[in-house]
UniProtKB/TrEMBL annotation:
SUPFAM superfamilies: NAD(P)-binding Rossmann-fold domains (SSF51735), Nucleotide-diphospho-sugar transferases (SSF53448). Residues 1-15 have a biased composition (Basic and acidic residues). This is NAD-dependent epimerase/dehydratase domain-containing protein. Residues 1-30 are annotated as: Disordered. Residues 396-530 form the NAD-dependent epimerase/dehydratase domain. Belongs to the NAD(P)-dependent epimerase/dehydratase family.
Length: 617
């Protein structure tokens, strides 16, 4: 699939097939809004009648020698009904899967729930024939690789990809407007395709440490549900009981030169990632990685994690220093005591993802996420936390559950929406009085607060209300401006903005820490406002567009958004609480979750899905 501007590159790819089977398809509207979706319809719509599989290449790739023969062998060896990709990018979560596969000696691995790497994608022929109809119904301006992910998810099709990659991303500028994502190449590319492309061992790893957008994080798979949690690598290491050893190694004199060259932010994240990789390898009982392979995949760790922040020249200059630091960290992690790891998390000691605090209410995803974060904070208070709804749903059951559990404290998580209808300005907790607000939505939240207080007086249990700003990050409510705008940005629709609007947002990690601060102190204050940050509407929309897709906006002639905000000085003065979560990271996590996670991961327990966890997990 090619743009007319790249016909020379496309013909070169086609002519490399010794059997002449490759057809060049071009954008039917090359002067239209940049998108790969138009060409994708043509490319997936030309499956040969006698084909068993259909391969689509993008025009900005470089092929390994023997690539087409490699594709034939892979198609013959892979289990029926699977999709096969021949690329894993260094900037992606799946690029981290490729790194881990290489370190365990696996030639294939199953992808995470992320956009499918479509640079070179092979589908069974019947599946390829079905794609066009799906895109026509569900494309809606979404990025091409996300549409493919959603299509394969709906069909329950697993995606495997090879390591090393047998195609490389060329350094050509993006025609789809993605150049601001930076210099992008494969995690590991070899110039000659392997002669053995057998199905072999194709693991689905239970824990995948990755370095992305300058942050060290881990994808952690729930063994019971097959769902994925994405959390800070430091939190995962704490769960496994290996964080102290990791930080001790980072502080050793041998890391000094690298820390000085890279700076603390980069060096620390690289060390955490390398160390976590070592812990995973040790927990899986994997043999010592081949040093040449390990060096090759660690060479791309820095470029993948920092490609949006630095030029290609800067990334390549930093790569050797980052490689050596990551290798040293991996060696330290392999020596860590990982004997208690089970499904990626130590079953006893070293912290637990199961909190003693009862969490009720909210949708399942946000509640589970908050409960896990509270557990990572080590809370042992006999308390109940309820996520309000504003319409009374589930409140009576939550109060009964708190009493049954013997809770000694009750924290009700209300909403800033209780201030709706207020005049512009900054509002302290006493701005809502004893009388019900006139605004219908505000009155619903006020009524829930009142019911909680009355229950507490009757039950003799202290009740505290946290009025929280709009959550941002995974599992954020669909009603929030952040989710609405991310949806518009991903699908390239203009945003309608109020130039004087004001928005407050709250990261779930800050929320968990605020709950910790409340429960660690006597229940002196009945109501506290909690927020991570405050932004003007134009500023917030710009930040969200930067982490999803840049999109135009239009100005509204009438007020659309609040002109007021909550004052958060009381919780800061009384409890010494301050927001610490990086808000930009939360916005990026929201954008990734909305595009790649909530549209449905396939059921890994369904017939035809790969067994999990496979060896090496």
């Amino acid at each position: 699939m090619a743009h007319p501007k790249r016909m020379e590159e496309a013909r070169r790819l086609a002519e490399a097939d010794p059997q002449g089977r490759i057809l060049v398809t071009t954008d039917p509207d090359p002067d239209g809004r940049p998108t790969a979706l138009r060409t994708a319809l043509v490319s997936w719509g030309c499956v040969a009648p006698d084909a068993t599989h259909h391969l689509v290449l993008q025009d900005d790739v470089v092929l390994a020698e023997g690539f087409y023969e490699h594709v034939e062998r892979a198609a013959a060896a892979a289990p029926a009904g699977e999709a096969i990709s021949f690329y894993g990018g260094w900037e992606a979560r799946n690029g981290a899967v490729a790194r881990l596969a290489a370190l365990t000696g696996a030639g294939w691995a199953y992808t995470l729930q992320e956009h499918v790497p479509c640079q070179a994608l092979l589908l069974p022929a019947e599946l390829a024939r079905e794609y066009g109809e799906f895109q026509e119904r569900h494309g809606g301006g979404w990025p091409y690789d996300v549409v493919v992910q959603r299509f394969l998810n709906e069909r329950g099709v697993p995606v495997r990809f090879c390591t090393p990659s047998t195609v490389q991303h060329d350094a050509l500028p993006s025609l789809a407007g993605n150049s601001y994502h930076g210099f992008r190449q494969a995690t590991w590319f070899e110039g000659t395709a392997p002669e053995d492309a057998g199905a072999g061992d194709c693991p689905r790893f239970a824990v995948v440490p990755f370095y992305q957008y300058g942050d060290a994080r881990c994808a952690v798979r729930d063994a019971d549900t097959g769902s994925w949690e994405y959390l800070e690598t430091e939190r995962w290491l704490r769960r496994t009981g290996t964080l102290d050893g990791c930080l001790a190694g980072y502080g050793a004199p041998g890391t000094g030169p690298a820390r000085q060259q890279l700076g603390e932010r980069v060096a620390r994240a690289v060390w955490l990632t390398g160390y976590a990789l070592g812990v995973v390898l040790a927990g899986a009982g994997a043999p010592e990685p081949d040093r040449r392979t390990a060096a090759a995949v660690m060479e791309t760790l820095g470029p993948g994690g920092l490609c949006e922040e630095h030029t290609a020249e800067e990334l390549l200059a930093m790569a050797p220093v980052i490689r050596d630091l990551a290798l040293a960290a991996m060696d330290e992690g392999r020596r860590a005591d990982a004997s208690g790891l089970a499904g990626g998390t130590r079953s006893a000691g070293g912290g637990s993802s199961v909190p003693s605090v009862l969490v009720t209410g909210g949708d399942g995803g946000f509640g589970r996420q908050l409960a896990g974060t509270l557990g990572d904070l080590g809370l042992r208070a006999r308390a109940a936390v309820h996520l309000g709804s504003g319409d009374g749903a589930g409140l009576a059951a939550a109060l009964d559950a708190a009493r049954t559990a013997g809770a000694e404290r009750f924290v009700y998580l209300g909403s800033a929406a209780v201030y709706r209808g207020s005049a512009p300005g900054e509002l302290a907790e006493e701005a809502v009085g004893p009388d019900a607000p006139q605004d219908d939505v505000a009155r619903g939240w006020w009524e829930e607060e009142r019911r909680c207080r009355e229950w507490g007086e009757t039950a003799g249990i202290p009740v505290q209300v946290l009025r929280i700003a709009d959550p941002v990050g995974p599992h954020a409510p669909a009603s929030t401006a952040c989710v609405r705008w991310v949806d518009l940005a991903w699908t390239r629709r203009p945003l309608l903005l109020d130039p004087q609007g004001v928005h407050q947002i709250l990261d779930h990690r800050d929320l968990a820490d605020a709950i910790r601060a409340v429960l660690a102190a006597p229940p002196a204050r009945p109501v506290l406002n909690v927020a991570s940050a405050r932004h003007g509407e134009v500023e917030l929309a710009g930040l969200l567009a930067d982490v999803s897709r840049r999109t135009p906006w239009e100005w509204s002639q009438v007020p659309l958004s609040p002109r007021w905000s909550m004052a958060t000085g009381l919780i800061e003065r009384e409890l010494g609480w301050r927001p610490t979560a990086p808000v930009m990271e939360a916005m990026r996590a929201l954008a990734q979750w909305y595009a790649c996670d909530i549209h449905g991961d396939y059921d890994e327990t369904a017939p035809g899905s790969p067994a999990a966890p496979a060896s090496g997990s």
